[in-house]
Amino acid sequence: MSTGVPSTKWNGNGSLCQTKSQNTSLEVSLHYEGKRDEKEILATRPAEIRSIWTGEDPQNILYYGDNFYILPLLLQDQSLHGKVRLIYIDPPFATGSVYQSRSQKDAYQDLLAGAHYIEFLRERLIFLRELLADDGSIYVHLDEHMAFHIKVIMDEIFGRANFRNWITRKKCNPKNYTRRTYGNISDYILFYTKSNNYVWNRPLQAWTEEAARKEYQYVEEGTGRRYKKVPLHAPGVRNGETGKPWRGMLPPPGKHWQFTPQTLDEMDARGEIYWSPNGNPRRKIYLDESEGVPVQDIWLDFKDAHNQNIKITGYPTEKNPDLLTLIIRASSNEGDIVLDCFSGSGTTLEVASQLGRQWIGIDNSPEAIRTTLYRFAHGTEPMGDFVGTRNLKRRTKQQTLHLFRITNFALYAAEPYMGEIDQIVTEWEQWIK
User: Fold this and answer.
1) Using CA atoms, how far apart are residues 373 and 367, in angstroms rounded to an integer?
2) What's phi and psi for 227, nearest 5 deg?
3) Residues 308, 377: one domain?
4) Are residues 243 and 283 in the same domain?
5) Is residue 191 part of a domain?
6) Which strand (E) or helix (H) includes residue 1?
C-alpha cells in the first residue's frame, strides 16, 4: 500500500487540483424539499409524559413515545444536556417494509423514503448533537439505502473533521440466490465524535496462536522471543536529526529515520535491530510486547442471528450484543450515560447495564417496549424456541432479580402513547414475579 506525502511536497503541475486551504474550507451540503432550519427544529415543543413505573433508585430511563418530542424534553434536563457520552442508534433503513416479531406481532413500519426519510433522521440527529458531551461519540447504523445520504447530513451536523470511521459489518452468511449481483451481506455504521478530544478505549483482539506465528515469524536466539521485522524509516523528508546519516547510511530517498541516530544506537545496543546479510537494518517488534490486534473498520464477527442456537428476543432486526459490547467499551467509561432513541428490543440498554453504564432508551413501538421489558424479566432465548409453539423456560427467581437489579429503571409514556402501556406493564409485573 502506498503512502502519500504532504501536498506541499508536490513537485508536479498543481493546476489540476485545488490548494490545501481551498480543500479544507470546502463545505458540502445536501439540499432537498422540506429541509427545515435548525432553530425551528430545536424550538419543538417537548412531549408531555406520565410516569408509568419507577424502580428503587432508578438510574436508567425507558421512554415510550416519539423520540422527536422526547429528545427536546431531555434537552431541558441540565443533567443530560451536553452530558451523554455515547449515542448508538439503529433507525429504520428506508427499506419500504413492515416488520413483525417472530410472534407475528407488528413491530414497526419502515416506509419513509427519499427526502422525507432524510429530514426525519436529520431532525433527530440535531437533537442528539445537543445532548452529546463534548468528548462524546455517536454511531449511526444504516444499510446501502441511505447511508451515503446520511453521511453528508452528519458532516453538516457534526462537522467533517469529526468523522472517524465508515465501519462495514458483515450482517449475515453468504447468500446463494443472487444471479445478477454480488451477494448483499454488509451494512454500515457511521462513527462521529463531538470534538477531536473524545473518550476512546482502543479495542483490541487477542492474538490467536496461528495469527501470531504468521505475523511474528522469527524467534530470537538466546531469548526465544518471537518477533517480526519492520522498516526503520518512514515517509517524508526531514531536515533535523532523523534526516541525518546513521552508521554511514542515509534513509531511502523521500524517507526519514523513525528515530534519531542516538536512539537507534541505543536500540542496537539492546539487540532490538536486525541486520540483514547485506547490512540493511530492520527494527524488531516483539510479540510479548503486543497487547493484541487493534480492531479495524471491517467487522466480520458480529452477524445477526443465523442459527437455532443464538439467543434472541424475537424482535425483528435486533443487533448482536457483542457488537454493542465493542462500541460501548470503546467509546464510554463506567458510569457514563448511553442513549439509544431507537431502542427496539433493548440490546443497547441491557449491554450498557452489564458494562456499568447508565442508559436512556426511547421507542414508539408497543412491541418494542413489551420486548424490552420481557428481556429485563427473562433475558433472551435460543432462536429455535421461536419456531412453532413456544415452550418458554422461566428464569429462576434469583436470576430474574439479578437481571432486574442491574437494569433498574423508570418507565415513562408520552402523549398520545398511553393507551396500551398499562397493559404492557401489567404483563411485565407478572413476568418478574
Assistant:
1) 10
2) -150, 170
3) yes
4) yes
5) yes
6) none
Which of 119-128, 188-197, 401-410 is predicted least confidently?
401-410
Q: Rounded to whole angstroms, how far apart are CA atoms 166 and 189?
A: 6
The answer on 277 and 241 residing in a single domain is yes
Q: How many residues does the chain have?
A: 433
Residue 137 maps to a domain = yes
Least confident residue range of 148-162, 304-318, 357-371: 304-318
Report whether the peptide linkage leading into residue 416 is cis, meaning its omega lies within 30 degrees of zero: yes
161-188: average pLDDT: 90
CA distances from 334 to 57, 354, 405 (A): 18, 10, 17
Q: Tell how strand 204-205 and strand 186-193 pair up.
A: unpaired
The number of folded domains in the chain is: 2
Q: Are both 213 and 68 inside the same structural domain? A: no
From CA 362, how far away is CA 128, in angstroms rounded? 13
* Whole-number Å distance between alpha carbons of 335 and 358: 6
Kindly tell me the sign of the dihedral angle through the C-alpha atoms of 49, 51, 52, 56.
Answer: positive
Examine the pLDDT at 131 and tell me if it is beyond 60.
yes
In whole angstroms, give the CA distance from residue 361 to residue 343. Answer: 5
140 touches 89 (CB < 8 A): yes
Co-location of 327 and 415 in the same domain: yes
Domain that holds residue 271: 209-289
Choosing from 231, 261, 289, the residue where a domain stops is: 289
CB 351 within 8 A of CB 375: no
Count Cα neighbours of 131 within 13 Å in the Cβ-side half-sphere. 27
The mean pLDDT value of the chain amounts to 86
* Domain finish residue from 246, 264, 289: 289
Whole-angstrom distance, CA of residue 173 vs CA of residue 170:
8
Report the relative pairing of strands 218-219 and 226-230 from DSSP bridges. Answer: antiparallel
Q: Which amino acid is at 77?
A: D
Strand 358-363 relative to strand 337-340, pairing: parallel
Whether residue 336 contacts residue 327, with contact meaning beta carbons closer than 8 Å, is answered with: no
3-state secondary structure of 84: strand
Same domain, 129 and 278: no
**Same domain as 384, residue 260:** no
Residue 11 domain-assigned (yes or no): no
- 386, 364 contact by CB (below 8 A): no
Relative orientation angle of helices 67-75 and 114-131, to the nearest 10 degrees: 20
Residue 82 DSSP code = T
Residue 282 burial (CB count, 10 A): 14
Query: Is the separation of the CB atoms in 158 and 138 below 8 Å?
Result: yes
Q: State how beta strands 381-382 and 311-312 pair.
A: antiparallel
